[in-house]
């Protein structure tokens, strides 16, 4: 059989690409080994485990070309695989729900810093309500659960090298609470130069010239780092069967007894190993990952995996009606099985970044929910929006600090006095980005029970006991300032121009 010139060219190209890939991989391995020699033995042992995971990810990154999904194979999941929450709730609870609670551990993803909100240190230590931080609220919720049901639900924090030290210092204050708290660290991976595909780190240090050389590789790393830490085996030995995983900044992610009961009441051969809580998309959620049916499996589809030509379709609220809240219920024995068989194939998210000095780097990351396709009898539960209450910005912070919510035993619930179940749409301008600046602009938080929409732009401050209703837009032009006077009631108003209130 004779080969055409095109065939020969293609074969030569493939061989060339393969050699290039091998060179990149060899160079990477050499660099990583050299880095390990720059630290002490104990550190090197931990980092070697991290690097083993990184090498696998890097190997797969070099193999992958183009989008990881074939758009034509994407289908909406069959209805039975995404159950409405009301159907699960309608089954009620058994008298002995404490037995199920004792088989649960709560894991909070605690790797993030508060930098996007202008705060130093872990995001979980920002005060969000009545001087309570995200971590305080989490501890109070679980303690309340343990006391109410006389149960033993531990809290597990997945820290990163950015948050571990500060978090551990704070944990002392919960010593006398009825919650066992465990921590483990997610991996530390090297950022790689976009051109050379080699680490930018000069040593294993994390300060000075190396301050930007490392990153925590996304929450998909939970499986490997949880397993490597020994904590997975410890919890299984203590009789724990499931973990409830969520972002620590999602104030709606509390332990739901109905979902827990659903998991525990399945027959042994039909045990559901993974539940993803999803909720209906609104215009604000168009970038959120969604559940699809793909080659007979439920699969998480993230915007980063979508071919450019289909991004608008992905964002449509009609075709993909739900998105992932990142509240997940996962079987511990199943994680152990999949980790030991090395059969959790998580899609790689390539996250390009430009460092302060202008250097272009890439971070290879994975998402915790992407593992859904590897677990048996996985399903989605379409939960009420109230289970998704993330605080990512000062606009979110204004909502959770206001009288729209009431706080009880660490849990925030929408006030009974609000007539609509939806939260108002709040957009605060750049003068409010940092928490300190945000707090300085409010003498106290306005009454927002009847608010639908608030936009604030420019140099604006709020006096005491202001009330906002309907749609309120306040715009101070550059160089102007608007002081909303104490006791003001703004209903369906646009305020612009200049309004100064000075102390007499």
What tags apply to this protein structure?
four-stranded parallel sheet; 2 domains; 504 residues; globular; UDP N-Acetylglucosamine Acyltransferase, domain 1; alpha/beta; Spore Coat Polysaccharide Biosynthesis Protein SpsA, Chain A
- What is the annotated CATH architecture of the largest domain? Alpha-Beta Complex
Approximate shape: globular
Instruction: Please report the distance between the alpha carbons of the first and last residues.
Output: 97 Å
CATH hierarchy, class of the largest domain: Alpha Beta
Q: How many helical stretches?
A: 13
CATH homologous superfamily descriptor of the largest domain: Spore Coat Polysaccharide Biosynthesis Protein SpsA, Chain A
When the domains are counted, the total is: 2
- The percent range for helix content is 25-40%
Category by helix and strand content:
alpha/beta
What's the Cα radius of gyration?
25 Å
Q: Please mark out the parts with pLDDT under 50 across 5 or more consecutive residues, or reply none.
A: none
> How is the largest sheet built, in terms of strand order?
1-17-11-14-10-2-5-6
Instruction: Indicate the proportion of strand residues.
Output: 15-25%
Give the beta-strand count.
25
By CATH, the topology of the largest domain is Spore Coat Polysaccharide Biosynthesis Protein SpsA, Chain A
The pLDDT mean sits at 91
Biggest sheet layout = 8 strands, mixed
Organism: Oreochromis aureus
EC number: 2.7.7.9
Subunit structure: Homooctamer.
GO molecular function: UTP:glucose-1-phosphate uridylyltransferase activity
């Amino acid at each position: 059989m004779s080969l055409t010139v095109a065939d020969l060219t293609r074969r030569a190209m493939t061989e060339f690409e393969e050699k290039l890939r091998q060179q990149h991989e060899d160079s990477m391995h050499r660099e990583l080994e050299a880095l390990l020699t720059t630290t002490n033995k104990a550190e090197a042992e931990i980092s070697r485990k991290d690097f083993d995971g990184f090498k696998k990810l890097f190997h797969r990154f070099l193999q992958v070309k183009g989008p990881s999904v074939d758009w034509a194979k994407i289908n909406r999941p069959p209805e039975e695989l995404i159950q409405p929450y009301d159907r699960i709730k309608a089954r009620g609870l058994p008298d002995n729900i404490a037995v199920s609670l004792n088989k649960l551990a709560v894991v909070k993803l605690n790797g993030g810093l508060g930098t996007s909100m202008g705060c130093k240190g872990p995001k979980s230590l920002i005060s969000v309500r009545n001087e309570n931080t995200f971590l305080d609220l989490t501890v109070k919720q679980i303690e309340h659960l343990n006391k109410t049901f006389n149960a033993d639900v531990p809290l597990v924090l997945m820290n990163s090298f950015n948050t571990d030290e500060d978090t551990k210092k704070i944990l002392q204050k919960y010593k006398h609470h009825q919650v066992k708290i465990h921590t483990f660290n997610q991996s530390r991976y090297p950022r790689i130069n976009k051109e050379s595909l080699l680490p930018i780190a000069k040593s294993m240090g994390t300060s000075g010239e190396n301050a930007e050389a490392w990153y925590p590789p996304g929450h998909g790393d939970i499986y490997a780092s949880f397993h490597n830490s020994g904590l997975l085996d410890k919890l299984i030995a203590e009789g724990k069967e499931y973990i409830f995983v969520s972002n620590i900044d999602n104030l709606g992610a509390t332990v739901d007894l109905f979902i827990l009961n659903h998991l525990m009441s399945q027959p042994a051969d039909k045990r559901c190993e993974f539940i993803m809580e999803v909720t209906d998309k609104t215009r604000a959620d168009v970038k959120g990952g969604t559940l699809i049916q793909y080659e007979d499996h439920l699969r998480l589809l993230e915007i980063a995996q979508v071919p450019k030509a289909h991004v608008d379709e992905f964002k449509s609220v009609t075709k993909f009606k739900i998105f992932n809240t990142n509240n997940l219920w996962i079987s511990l024995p199943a994680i152990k099985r999949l980790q030991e068989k090395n059969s959790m194939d998580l899609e790689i998210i390539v996250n390009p970044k430009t460092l302060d000095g202008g250097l272009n780097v890439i971070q290879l990351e994975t998402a915790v929910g992407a593992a859904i396709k590897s677990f048996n009898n996985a399903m989605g539960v379409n939960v009420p929006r109230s289970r998704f209450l993330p605080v990512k910005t000062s606009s979110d912070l204004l909502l959770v600090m206001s009288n729209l919510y009431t706080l009880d035993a660490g849990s925030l619930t929408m006030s009974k006095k609000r007539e609509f179940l939806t939260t108002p749409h709040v957009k605060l301008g750049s003068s409010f980005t940092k928490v300190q600046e945000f707090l300085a602009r409010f003498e106290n938080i306005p009454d927002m029970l009847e608010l639908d929409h608030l936009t604030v732009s420019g140099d604006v401050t709020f006096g005491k006991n202001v009330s906002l209703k309907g749609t309120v837009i306040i715009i101070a032009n550059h160089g102007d300032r608007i002081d909303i006077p104490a006791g003001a009631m703004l209903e369906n108003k646009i305020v612009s121009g200049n309004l100064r209130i000075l102390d007499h």
